[in-house]
Structure formats: C-alpha cells, structure tokens
Amino acid sequence: MGQPVVHWELWSENPSDVADFYRTVFDWEIRTIPQMDYHLVEKEENGIGGGIMQPQKGPWPGNMAMYIDVDDLAKFRQRILDAGGQIIVEEQDVPGVGSLSLFADPDGRVMGMWKR
Residue 3 — pLDDT band, cuts 50, 70, 90? Predict the structure, then answer.
C-alpha cells in the first residue's frame, strides 16, 4: 500500500468566503486560526482533514481535485447553487459503482461529489 492522503489545502484569494461556502453546503466544521490566517477543516471520523488559506507567495497551482461523498446529488447541487456555486456536470453514472456531479465553488475551483 502506498502513502495515504492525510491533508489537503484549498488556496484562495478569499479564504473566509470559501470556508463559509463549504460550511454552508456540506456542514463542515471549520476552525479559524487567526494568527496563521488559516481555516482548519476538522477531520471527520472517516475523512481527511484539510485547510483553506490565502497563498503568500506564488505562483501556486490553482485547483485541487477531490470528491466529496454525498447521499443525494440533486439535494447538494441545489445547496451549491443556493450558496453561490455553479454546477459543471449535473450527474454522470459510473456503471456498477455510483454517480458523480462536478461543481465550481465561488473561486471557480472544480470539485466533485460522489454518490455510491
């Protein structure tokens, strides 16, 4: 087995707004660490923790891909639209495995949702 992913970061010009977006849509617990100007996304029981921050030096790669597990793609697509995001791919089946949907957050970062 290779090394597992143990942390991720989203780089944003407006990290507070992006933290609010993910908190609103997915109910993520996000703790702000003011002295570091960092938004720490708490690790869930079966998940991977991460962070949201503004890059101090660049250039930084712009986007990161990951899929977020959801129980109802349509419900979360609506929540994304309500919170200021965009839907890129409504729904696409992966035969015998599940379904996915792609969306863009307020920074234009494309992310995915996965339903088993």
Answer: low
